[in-house]
Amino acid sequence: MNKIKFVASALLGLSFSATVFAGGILTNTNQSARFARLMSLEASTQGADIAYYNPAGTIKLGEGLHFTFSNQSAFQKRIITATNPAYIQSYNRETTKRYEGTASAPIIPSLQGVYRKGKWALSGSIAVTGGGGKATFSDGLSLFETAVSQMPTLISTLTGGAMKPDRYSVDQYMTGSNFIYGAQLGGAYEINKMFSVYGGFRLSIVNNKYEGYLRNLETNIGSGGIMASPSPILEAAIPKMEAAGQPQTLINAAYMFMKAGQEGGAQLSSKQTGWGVAPIIGVNFGYGNLNIGAKYEFKTSLNVENKTSVDDTGKNNTGMFGDGVNTDHDVPALFTIGASYKILPQLSANVGYHYFFDKDAGMDKGKQKALNGGTNEYLFGLEYQIDKMFLVSTGGQITRYGATDEFQSDLSFSVNSYSLGFGGAVNVSKSVQINIGYFFTDYTNYEKAMGDNAKNIYTRTNKIFTAGVDFTF
How is residue 153 annotated by DSSP? Predict the structure, then answer.
């Protein structure tokens, strides 16, 4: 039964659920059009979007009502290049395959507002604080390919060597969307002309959806080596596997492959929902041309419940996202700090730093334990006022994750990156400003050893267009 155990090991990747298609590991910090063109807003004291970036700094806004509305259009590709000697048994005999997931979100709105009166400023923000898009892998994922590539070995073992197929083919598809909607509310108080503080909270609501299939599964077990469905063999073998006490992972996979070879195939249709609340605190210091802002967002403890379709036997076709199962889905705590300095009346420079406490945030099956540490982000930006009407800016961000091979997977991978943004603003009047911006991200390649001369290379591409309008009354 050593071959059976080998196949079971190869199929382990089909039995887990994970967060899919999030921005970063989980949190979005691009919440306004100004971010795209300047990147570093941790110490900003202008614009209603500081309700999110530097909430203690809202006390620096003029008295009255301020609000900003922005929309972002995000386009991303997630690319997995998988190399595995077992793929030589695929119908086209390729050992390296490319799986490309296209993610697009043309509408990602956000709204921030501030009302300042005397020493107090009340502020709020509504935005997509995590995820924000839908990714589609039209050719499926390498984790499915790796499992299916073991089909010839499985069939040979189950038939005692009477059949020795060396070819397989399958159609696969996977799509998923991930959204965390955040509603933030809080207030800032001016202690004196230099110091102000903030206290508030954010409500986070998770809404994830996954769909996919494996179908038209065939191996060359027919008469004369003709490609045919292995479903009859697997259907007869499953009861014997159960009686023999074979690993449940293997039995689940055999059931899935049986369904994949039948009309309609093995289907996945699942939703995840959940919510949580976490406090936020902040402080701002200003003196002359220098301003420093900092905030700490506590961990949002939450989990999501799977609502997964099952077939008429009460079984989940793919074994992924078990129906009714609750999964840890914490939003990690976040610390940010930044400084802004007016070099000239027309020119200001900004720097910022983010640290995400990822290892302290619960993930499915304790996946956070596989991280080397939290996520570090380093930001900078320059803004130049051309005249009373026009200004331009540029900025950048460096992101470094604590990911390891054990953490990375087809369903959730994070790779180090560099981002560059630029844009400008137009002061239409004293009370109206229009912001536009664009930023793109260059991702490194992460190579993960998969064993037996196999490897996966993970990377992405990303570009975001933004536009927004600020009002002051």
Answer: H
